[in-house]
Design brief:
alpha/beta, 9 helices, single chain, 16 strands
């Protein structure tokens, strides 16, 4: 294997506290209000998370791209003197008429980092299909907006191997993006999404083989695949994402009590494997995020 990624003994742990689909019916500990999300992020930060991947929910608990809600979450987190990196999801919400174009609204909240979806995804929920066409032309418009605002993209591969081997390289070659390129491998979503890449050790190895030069990677996996996938990621020199967005059980049949519990386990495993847990300041340095973004103060209380 030709090693092209940037290697470091520092381990960035990302917490994804809620996602856009699961509700308290699945696990009563899933946060949905801004206050609950902020508290879960704060607790995860105390256990070693240096990055938070955030989805927002409206007052009914439905996923939204409303920048006011994102701003409120960010303001609540910062009010706790928590310096965790804030990454906002640009995936569409689940409100009536939501589309991928709504991802641009999230940028109004001035995050440090955003998820940048690459490729097509067909979600399957309650026997309904929802097509999310993150095309190259859409990506070009999104990258232009990110460059104007100084927001770093996290490439999230929704189209499997082609997303990395072709599309990510296209964006790198055609846009003045800062290094390192931050790439996320979402795995194990095949039960709820067409075109998703299953987690197997071989699949993750193949993705790592395809990494562009000057890149760093993080792995997430859904359900029971979460822990083995992120442990393999750590062993390969990558980074780890855990949280209720991806897995709500701590072990077979045992619901996780908090996102912090999932972070604690991965931090312990990472240290046992010889990695040191990156602080937010160290993670910003690794990812070349120069300073905390000027979080927009919410206008609504």
């Amino acid at each position: 294997m030709e090693v092209t990624m940037i290697a470091t003994d520092k381990l960035i742990i990302c917490v994804a506290p809620c996602g856009s689909f699961l509700t308290k019916e699945a696990n009563p500990n899933i946060p949905t209000s801004p206050e609950e999300i902020a508290e879960e992020v704060y607790r995860a930060w105390n256990e070693g998370a240096s990055l938070a991947h955030i989805h927002a929910r409206n007052r009914e608990g439905i996923a939204t791209t409303d920048p006011e809600v994102f701003s409120k979450i960010a303001h609540l987190i910062r009010s706790k003197n928590c310096d965790i990196i804030l990454e906002f999801s640009t995936s569409p919400g689940r409100e009536e008429g939501a589309s991928i174009e709504d991802g641009f609204r999230v940028l109004e909240a001035n995050p440090e980092l955003v998820s940048f979806n690459v490729g097509f995804l067909v979600l399957m929920h309650a026997r309904k299909e929802r097509i999310l066409p993150w095309t190259r032309s859409f990506g070009e418009r999104m990258l232009k907006a990110l460059l104007e605002k100084g927001i770093k993209p996290e490439f999230e591969l929704q189209g499997g191997l082609g997303s990395l081997a072709v599309e990510v390289r296209y964006f790198i070659e055609n846009f003045p993006l800062s290094k390192p390129y931050w790439i996320d491998f979402p795995l194990g979503m095949q039960r709820t999404a067409q075109n998703a890449t299953p987690y197997t050790p071989r699949n993750l190895m193949h993705l790592v083989d395809l990494l562009p030069a000057d890149s760093m990677f993080m792995t997430l996996a859904v359900g029971a695949d979460e822990t083995p996938a992120v442990v393999q990621s750590i062993l390969l020199g990558g980074h780890a994402r855990v949280g209720f967005e991806d897995a709500i059980y701590y072990s077979r049949g045992v619901l996780a009590k908090s996102n912090a519990d999932l972070v604690t386990r991965i931090a312990r495993i990472g240290m046992d494997l010889g990695r040191t847990i990156a602080t937010p300041a160290e993670a910003r340095d690794l990812l070349a995020i120069t300073k905390l973004q000027n979080i927009k103060k919410p206008t609504q209380k």
